[in-house]
């Protein structure tokens, strides 16, 4: 949305020119309305809601935050709520109602047609992170005995209510999925041809209880616009469209990023209670890492006498620890992403490890040579340069090994590899890197003092 339009809306809101707002809002896309609402205060939201066209409000509703949703429910009349719900797709309604109380959900379901309410009620019963939880029941399905002409008549009749019209699903009398054909294939076929003679019988489909992340992987792999959802009897129950999968990918990526930072998302706009929740969620991880980081302190304590003898060793400790942690995180990120997208599988461990070690070895050689030269020129002691360079080389190789293998090990035991990232890997590599550094220094002690 253009800045000039936003400023114009803000100006009219200040003057409470609601009627003048309506034509402006009529021209905005639902995504622009969502963006606009996010930038307004709650008082401004309350003022602008009556001016937003109901159809656009329906498309934008699921993207609003919790407080805005409840504000809308309190401001909009029951008859207008019915219009909003009628213009929403089934999966979006289910997502919306899933954020409300049971009482409010029942109240809104009563505003809907009985058959629609039953469909939504069924959708609410599925796990929200499963195929059933993100599917929509608004699709085009035609029985296999129909002709092309009859099928086109059906499409014309129900296309407005369907969320996806590019694929036509074909079922038998018991609603079992028999095949699929594209809209192009349908409209280019002769009217008297039987549908069952046109269909692609090998249909990529997913089961109701399949995890949403796996559904996203399937749609991405086969470049689908939608995928049908079936039960154990192969009965067609719904479809999952690519726009919902984009939301899933964003949600899963966000979740992994928070895991990799050993934290979680918190809404700070809710006041002190949210700040307390944020602190409670982050504290356990930080406490664990606090005690884990004492491993590095223990290593330094063991070699404290050596450190007192050669003070120059302390100058390179931060560089060694930081570079090792960075190298480990690079390898880790590649493996975690590969496992998440399916590009890397558990059976690929040794092949991927071999490749990573080769890359890590080359990087270690370059970084080790550079830091060795810096140590020699800075301190004038070539043995110190050898020690620091070797330590850097070994540290990066170790970090590459740990960063590559840890996600595979966690994935093997059914643990999300993302939790291995960042702080945990860095803590382990810090301790191992210092141990390698001081062990090499002790071996060359006579030449350092």
Question: What can you see in these coordinates?
Answer:
Acts as a magnesium transporter. Belongs to the SLC41A transporter family. This protein is mainly α and 449 residues long. It contains 22 helices and 6 strands. The protein folds into 3 domains: 123 residues, Alpha Horseshoe (MgtE N-terminal fold), CATH 1.25.60.10; 102 residues, CBS-domain (Roll), CATH 3.10.580.10; 181 residues, Orthogonal Bundle (Tetracycline Repressor, domain 2). Helix content is 65%, strand content 6%. The strands form 2 sheets. It has a 3-stranded mixed beta sheet with strand order 1-2-3. It has a 3-stranded mixed beta sheet with strand order 4-5-6. Helix 1 packs antiparallel against helix 2. The protein starts with a helix and ends with a helix.
Biggest sheet strand line-up = 1-2-3
**H/E topology pattern:** HHHHHHHHHHHEHEEHEHEEHHHHHHHH
Major beta-sheet overview: 3 strands, mixed
Distance between the termini: 67 Å
Number of strands: 6
State Rg: 30 Å
Indicate the low-confidence ranges by residue numbers: none
Instruction: Please give the count of helices.
Output: 22
Q: At the fourth CATH level, what is the homologous superfamily of the largest domain? A: SLC41 divalent cation transporters, integral membrane domain
State the name of the first-level CATH class of the largest domain: Mainly Alpha
